[in-house]
Design goal:
Layout lengths: L1 H31 E5 L14 E5 L9 E5 L5 E8 L5 E4 L2 E4 L2 E3 L5 H6 L10 E2 H5 L8 E5 L9 H4 L2 E2 L3 E10 L5 E2 L1
Antiparallel strand pairs: 1-2, 2-11, 3-4, 3-11, 4-9, 5-6, 5-8, 6-7, 9-10, 11-12
Amino acid sequence: MTTEHQWRDRFWLLFKYALIAFATAFLIRAFLLIPVPVSGNSMEGTLQQGDMVIIEKISPIRRFDVVVFQMPDGSTYIKRVIGMPGDSVRYEADQLYINDEPVEEPFLAKNRNNDHETASYTNDFDLESLLGVEKLGKDSYFVIGDNRRASKDSRSFGPISGDAILGNARFVYYPFSHIRFI
């Protein structure tokens, strides 16, 4: 009888551990680390079509974070945050200016080096000409793709709200040859 009792105790102990492990994995997958596929080439140089990325929802949004967000029509995009709430944003002669200060974009070096055209990589614009405002609103983020010439982003659909942001893209986990932190 002791052997049967020991077997039953071990079974229930393993069952409890498995249940806790599955519940923990579910919670992490559902609320903290979410897999998202990359579709399109607007983030080329940083992300490629078919990459699978993990996003996390805990960290605050900072300038130059790569974020995943959802548009009102339900479509999901992945872009880089350029402008934060209250910022003025403009490009002039391929130079980013935030609040009239030049800002470097080292993540574009690879794209610019691969681009053999003489035209500017990012066309000139300012918020006034695009949106009719000088600064972004209280909960507005200006997002843009790293592949500037092939990106549908805030230059075409305007700023996004913080509520639309699903999370920060942090890690490429598939395909295995692309595994890396973003």
